[in-house]
Structures are given as structure tokens and as C-alpha cells.
Amino acid sequence: MRTNPNIVITGTPGVGKTTHAELLARNAGLKHLSINQIVKDEKFHEGWDDELQTWIVDEDKLLDHLEILVAPGGCILDWHACDLFPKRWVDLVVVIRCDSTTLYDRLTARGYKGKKLEENMDAEIMEVLLDEAKEAYDEEIVVELKSDEAEDVEANVERIEKWIEMWKKDREGEEDEEEQ
Length: 180
Ligand code: ADP
Fold this sequence. Notes:
Layout: E1 7-10, H1 17-28, E2 31-34, H2 35-41, E3 45-49, E4 54-57, H3 59-70, E5 75-78, E6 92-97, H4 100-109, H5 114-125, H6 128-136, E7 142-146, H7 150-179
Parallel strand pairs: 1-5, 1-6, 2-5, 6-7
Antiparallel strand pairs: 3-4
Bound molecules: adenosine-5'-diphosphate.
């Protein structure tokens, strides 16, 4: 049994996943797993997609590696996709959202252009990640949080920390019941 929850932080590139994951990891003492970084560092990819300017991920290798890391709990899985993480790993799914004008500015500042910029803008406007999360996990563990301004990050992270406390209390309650 996990004593800390595993939390997925997902959303379109540029919405603020890393910003949230880093602050949450610091404040709540969780382990931040940047999936992009792991894919790159461990070479869990089958090459580079030149058109979309992204790695083609070897999902089997990635999942085998992550399975060991998430087993004890207390991990933040930070990625722009979420439906490949098995349900049994995940206690909360946070979908970060952002206003499309703001997102456009963030992505162009990052050098996104052409098809990559277009596809990511469309994905945010069409709520692709939110739908994906709701389809892959029970709706009651999926929360949507806005990240337009700096204050949003702190408020969102505080909210997630409160949720973690509740999750732990619920678990303690369940364990007590089992012992009786
Ligand atoms: P992602 O991990 O989803 O790609 P990042 O966390 O890297 O997004 O954020 C993308 C950019 O937007 C960064 O420059 C970050 O500082 C900025 N940013 C993210 N969230 C906010 C916010 N709520 N207010 C202002 N800037 C933000």
C-alpha cells in the first residue's frame, strides 16, 4: 500500500506543468518525474519526429522503468499525455489549463512554430488532454486547474497539498478499519 499518492500533472505543452510539479515536489516532499527528461536521458525513444519536432517514445521501455519508481508512491508524473499510465498507479490527475492567447505567447517564446504550434494550440482549445484524462481515469480523480497568472500556481499547489492531506487521512482511516 502506498503511503503517499502518485499524482499525474498533465496538459498541453506550455500550460505550466513543470512550474506546478516543481513547486508541489518542493512543498509536499514528492518526487518530480519529468517524463520528457526521462525519455531523453534514458533514450526511451525510437528516433526524432522532424515534422512535430518531438521524440517518438518507446512506451514499453518507459513504462517498465516508471513502474519501479512509482511503486512506493509519492511521485509526480509530469507529461503532456496521461492515458498510458495504468490506472492502478494513479491517485490524482491534475489537468492544467491556460487561456489560448497566453498559451500562444508562451509557445512562440519557446520557439514553437508551424505544425507544432498549430497542433498544440488546437489541442488546448479542444480540451484534448482533459477529455483524455476523463476517459482514462475515474472522473472523480480528475481535476482541472487554470494557470494563467503567477498567483494561480501557488493557489493550485496549495489546493493539491490539501488534497494530499485528505488522501492520507482517508488511508489511515481505512487501515484502522482493517486492523479492527
Ligand atoms: P509545461 O511544463 O506545461 O510545458 P512550463 O511550466 O514549462 O509549462 O511553463 C511554460 C512557461 O510559462 C514558463 O516560462 C513558465 O514560467 C510560464 N508559466 C507557467 N505557468 C504560469 C503562470 N501561472 N503564470 C505565469 N507564467 C506561467
